[in-house]
Amino acid sequence: MNNESYPPLFNQQSHQTQIIDIDEPIQDLEDLDLIPIIDLQCLSLDKLEEACKDWGLFRLVNHGIPSKLMTQIQDQAKNLFSLSFEHKQAILSSPLSYFWGTTARTISGAALRSPKTISWVEVINFPLVGLSESRFEDSLKMYKIYGLFIHFYGRVRSLMDEYGRHQARLARTIYESMAKNLGLDSRLSKSYLSESTGFIRVNRCPRIPKGNQAWGVGVHTDSTLLSILNQDQLGGLEVFKENKWILVKPIADSLIVNLGDMIQTISNDLYTSAKHRVKVKKQEDRITINYFVFPQFDCTLQSPK
Length: 305
Ligand SMILES: O=C(O)CCC(=O)C(=O)O
Ligand SMILES: [Fe+2]
Fold this sequence. Notes:
Elements lengths: L25 E2 L9 E3 L5 H10 L2 E5 L5 H15 L3 H7 L5 E4 L21 E6 L8 H5 L5 H37 L3 H4 L4 E12 L8 E7 L5 E6 L5 E5 L2 E4 L7 E5 L1 H6 L9 E5 L5 E9 L11
Parallel strand pairs: 1-10, 2-3
Antiparallel strand pairs: 3-11, 4-5, 5-6, 6-13, 7-12, 8-11, 8-13, 9-10, 9-12
Helix pairs in contact: 1-5, 2-5
Bound molecules: 2-oxoglutaric acid and fe (ii) ion (FE2).
The site of 2-oxoglutaric acid has 12 residues, from strand 6, strand 8, strand 12 and strand 13.
């Protein structure tokens, strides 16, 4: 098992970095999807309220993103990850960033990784603001693979722009309904969702040798206001609810909305920032595309009385 697109650690036959408990009980009822469903075409404020309080996570359907775009973005992410590890390290730099072994970064942008907590994941961050006018392409010309890379980077970038606009629309619609439910003061609550903070994070959890498993992403909550996830058909995402880990099954054309720490704070802990994690055990690469959005950086969060 060797492929130059993977970080070297992920090419080892077996790895000792993450031994995880295979017997841990997980609610896995074959045909049953336990995750609450929110239909954006006929959005029920009551259902939304229930999902936000009880789960902190829900499945979004009828969201208006064409399924072709959902698939194209997955395919292009796959292409980008298939560049060699060296090239990814060299060319996916500011305003983009590439790192592996963790999804967390320090304030200065360095990957927050330690040998004990290596996650089985590679990450590319795409800012959405300024992507089109960035000098990134100029800096790429220094590299020999410019010609090869640029023809699909251009494609990825325009897809990201289009996809990002849809995500911003979804976040705005969902957040405004939450604000209504929470009775937020509309003058204050405008700055609690700031589209300019939005970015897209593409994750690849590399295939893993048969019989092994690892954390793609360990247990965490998102620090966002909202996160909106497009996962491929391999699965692996789990959410914690009433002391059980529940599989968030992949269902074509649906998105998973995660409430982050910021909306939990704004709601005065009425809403839950969902605890979740990703387990990797398939012999195929797993790709997910996540949209993250935050409050305006300098605003003060105020919970309703
Ligand atoms: O890849 C996934 O399914 C979820 C990733 C995640 O939780 C994150 O990036 O915060
Ligand atoms: Fe997350």
